Amino acid sequence: MASRTQESETSPELDLVRITLPTLPSVPLLSAPSVFNVGARRLYDYSPTAILKMGTDEGEGVMTALARSILGPVVPEVLGVVTVPHLHPRARHGLLLARQPGTPLVTIWPSLQPMQRADVKNKLCDLVLRMRMRQFSYYGRPGGLPYTTETECGTAQHTFCTTRTEWNESRIRALQTVAPSIDIDEPRRLALEQMQKETICDDRPVLTHGDLSSRNILVHPDTLEVTGFLDWEMANVMPAYFEYVLARLSGGHQAEWRKELLDVLKNVLRVEAQNRAAQQTSVEDGGSAGDEEYGRALKAWNRLVDVERSAQEYSDRCYWTFEDNSQ
């Protein structure tokens, strides 16, 4: 197992090159079934080796660089933070990213056999486990920047936190802000606040992607090796349970892929639970203790899904947030 290393906010890989362009280059939009050019967000076919992503910001660049420092070349290299001053403020900033090899998983998943699907899911599990190995001392983004969540109504920024208590307070503030708009009455809100405070689980800060859609994963079409983890715009350093929460709540995943992704994340939890149990019990008792630890942890994760469903402004009408078909 790889050793865990402490994250440094002064790491050279987080010092990004800045590029100012007088005009937007005359290059075509990137076109593929897995690419969505929505609103100010645009992906351009910049060169044979690079993609220009406009309508994003330096925060995504920092998180992409941080992820690359942990996972290596499976994450795109950030070639520069781009500014085109004359464009609308929401569209003038972007990133120049190195192209990743591979095929979007969403395009080949339907054709894969069960054993091939299991192989891909095991590889994704290994990558997520690696992603969660590095130690952090905060919840947020490097440099004291706030963390970002995507709600049913858009995106929201939340205060940088250095302790679990501060994190709990941050999530309770989010809940209190949106409760009236989604018809959460006071007794229910107070019960959710109590759940946030009292639920005990693995709360170590870990790198969290936030949108593990099959569109954001590239694989080699022959070997099925994972060759790309893309789109780190919703990435943050968050408690270990939060990747699972976001997978449960996201309305952007196809129903079939959500089930597969939840299987992956539960396998991540199972491995981590077994490792914790092995450190605390004898070899003979390690298996059963690991199963018990896994069961307790999954129950806690699901309680926190109930908190975040409301804190992220999903009403009870958002049926997919209640779906959890695998154990």
From TrEMBL:
Aminoglycoside phosphotransferase domain: residues covered: 62-263
Database matches in InterPro entries: AGP_Transferase (IPR051678), Aminoglycoside_PTrfase (IPR002575), Kinase-like_dom_sf (IPR011009)
Membrane-crossing segments per the record: none
Name of the protein in question: Aminoglycoside phosphotransferase domain-containing protein
Organism: Rhodofomes roseus
Organism classification: Eukaryota, Fungi, Dikarya, Basidiomycota, Agaricomycotina
